[in-house]
Known about the structure:
The chain has about 70 residues and is mostly helical. The protein is built from two helices and no strands. Helix 1 runs antiparallel to helix 2 (about 30-55). The longest helix is centred in the middle third of the chain and has 26 residues, at about 30-55. The radius of gyration is 17 Å and the shape is elongated. It starts with a helix and ends in a 12-residue tail after the last helix.
Amino acid sequence: MHILVPIAFVLIIASMISALYFMVHDKGQSKRMVWSLATRVGLSISLFLFILFAHWMGWIQSTGIPLGR
């Protein structure tokens, strides 16, 4: 878990950077920016669902927010 989540975040950031690159250099001539953004959305949803599944399976536990500190 400590390795998978940071790797997913790095992939999401890389997808955003590639979308920015394609937006600047393609100037609307190709669909590469759209595919990069769609990949980012897919990765984000997958990461969210995986975290929910890991919590349900007991692989991770929520600690909550300590109130009054």
